[in-house]
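4.2 Preliminary Data

To establish feasibility before requesting continued support, the project team ran the inverse folding procedure on a target of 380 residues. The structure was first converted into the token representation described in Section 3, and no sequence information of any kind was made available to the design step. The complete token record follows.
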């Protein structure tokens, strides 16, 4: 229920703005107890208007003439009407003047004021909804909230999950670009892909989180024009509330350490890439020890040219011809670079599968964040 007494500043702005539109007319707003909470005559704020009490109790307009004035202490000649919100009286609004002369103008004032409060009530409900969503997301992301506590908040939002659920994190690709219009994104998704009773969303600072029971696919999200400038990250599905917390943490890690615009771990190839990246960063001391060995023999740009050669060579199914054509270098140059980087790492006698695995991990470390590159001093 909208409580008009809690909106005193808002009401004062309203009466002053409308008074200017109506030629400086005196306008008052009273609460359900008949207390004036806003007025163009500021000295009357906080005083009792008994005519307003009558309007609240009767539910009808009240015209106070000079003759009736003694019956309503604290009132002046004028026309007073109930303010309503969603069918319920929330206060009273009145206009000073001879009732017969101001009646029509007062009716227009009431219509204007009702719409004003309807807008404010909608905004209030919106803020409450956003607050509840943020609270629920915080509990789910933490991964340690009591299920009953989570379900109580979900019940307030009228949403219920059907596990397993998908966790989706949507954020800006260009951190220096314009802010993402999350409201229009939510509107678009609600029209086409999200079920408000089974799917949940929350706007948190500069990213949008979605937890959904619906069969939503990353490629469908990627096609939406509203998401053209966004990164879309979808970790593995969560089987319970605790797993949602892990999915949230995984999404944060992915956003920080992987570069692709869309990363969806429901696809095997993407899971493999994610696993390799996690291994490279979580075991960075081991991987970096091999890079240190390489640096004893090779330097910055030379390391990268050799790494590009070995990666193209492996990705081309160890076809020297195909890899050299892709890099636009001679076959002998390609073979020389591959041999030099493998020998520099000291893994020339390793089985092929282990060479491939380690070289990919080294490549991930070398092409990771700028902080990684700086700490390894490979640009020398």
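Position-by-position output of the design step:
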């Amino acid at each position: 229920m909208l409580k008009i007494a809690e909106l005193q500043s808002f009401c004062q702005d309203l009466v002053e703005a409308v008074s200017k539109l109506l030629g400086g007319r005196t306008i008052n707003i009273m609460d359900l107890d008949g207390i004036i909470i806003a007025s163009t005559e500021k000295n009357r704020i906080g005083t009792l208007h008994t005519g307003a009490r009558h309007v609240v109790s009767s539910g009808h307009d009240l015209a106070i003439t000079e003759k009736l004035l003694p019956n309503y202490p604290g009132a002046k000649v004028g026309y007073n009407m109930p303010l309503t919100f969603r069918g319920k009286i929330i206060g009273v609004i009145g206009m000073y003047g001879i009732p017969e002369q101001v009646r029509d103008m007062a009716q227009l004032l009431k219509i204007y004021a009702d719409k004003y409060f309807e807008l404010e009530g909608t905004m209030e409900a919106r803020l409450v909804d956003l607050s509840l969503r943020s609270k629920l997301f915080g509990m789910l992301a933490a991964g340690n909230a009591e299920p009953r506590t989570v379900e109580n908040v979900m019940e307030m939002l009228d949403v219920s999950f059907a596990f397993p659920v998908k966790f989706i994190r949507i954020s800006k690709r260009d951190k220096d670009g314009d802010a993402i219009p999350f409201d229009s994104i939510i509107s678009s998704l609600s029209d086409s892909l999200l079920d408000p009773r089974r799917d949940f969303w929350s706007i948190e600072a500069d990213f949008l989180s979605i937890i959904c029971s619906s069969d939503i696919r990353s490629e469908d999200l990627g096609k939406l024009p509203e998401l053209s400038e966004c990164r879309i990250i979808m970790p593995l599905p969560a089987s319970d509330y605790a797993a949602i917390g892990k999915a949230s943490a995984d999404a944060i890690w992915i956003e920080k350490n992987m570069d692709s615009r869309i990363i969806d771990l429901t696809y095997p190839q993407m899971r493999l890439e994610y696993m390799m990246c996690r291994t490279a960063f979580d075991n960075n001391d081991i991987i970096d020890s091999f890079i240190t060995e390489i640096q004893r023999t090779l330097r910055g740009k030379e390391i990268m040219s050799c790494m590009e050669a070995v990666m193209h060579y492996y990705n081309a199914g160890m076809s020297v011809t195909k890899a050299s054509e892709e890099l636009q270098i001679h076959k002998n140059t390609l073979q020389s670079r591959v041999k030099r980087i493998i020998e520099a790492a000291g893994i020339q006698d390793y089985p092929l599968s282990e060479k491939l695995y380690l070289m990919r991990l080294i490549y991930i470390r070398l092409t990771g964040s700028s902080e990684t590159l700086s700490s390894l001093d490979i640009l020398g």
